[in-house]
Amino acid sequence: EDMFSITGLKYAEATAAQGEKVTLLREPENKHDPNAVKVVNGSGQLIGHIAKDKAATLSPRIKEMQEDLQSQNLKKLVVEGTIISVSDGYQQSVKVEIKEISNEANDTEVEVIVLE
Questions:
Q1: Spatial CB neighbours of 75, under 8 Å, sequence gap ≥ 6
Q2: Tens digits of residue pLDDT in 64-78
Q3: Which listed residue, of 3, 5, 72, 77, carries a Cα 20 to 30 Å from 23's Cα?
Q4: pLDDT at 116
Q5: Contact assessment for residue 79 and residue 63, using Cβ atoms and an 8 Å cutoff
Q6: What is the value of pTM for the model shown?
Q7: Secondary structure E strands in 1-116
Q8: What is the average pLDDT score of the chain?
Q9: How far apart are CA 17 and CA 6, in angstroms?
């Protein structure tokens, strides 16, 4: 499953248009939810958060993949999304892709990880 709901839009710093690219970032310091995954736009402004029930599984998976890659020191993990619905003021849908990007300067290989 690679479709997620973004919630908390009324608390956002910015809105996202359908088709806009966004980045998902773990937010373990979030006082309401240590599994929080925030969604930011290209300028780093907060759009919202992945719904809590989905973040509970997504955040640990991202953490585990990041730790695996850090131990290898070869690639970095990027979690990107594409907004696929118009906001109703409360939530919005995002299609998520997790990518491993090589740290080698001459290596542009990107491996997309399929979410299940």
A1: 69, 100, 101, 102, 103, 111
A2: 998 888 877 777 888
A3: 72
A4: 46
A5: no
A6: 0.85
A7: 3-7, 21-26, 37-40, 46-50, 75-83, 91-102, 110-113
A8: 88
A9: 13
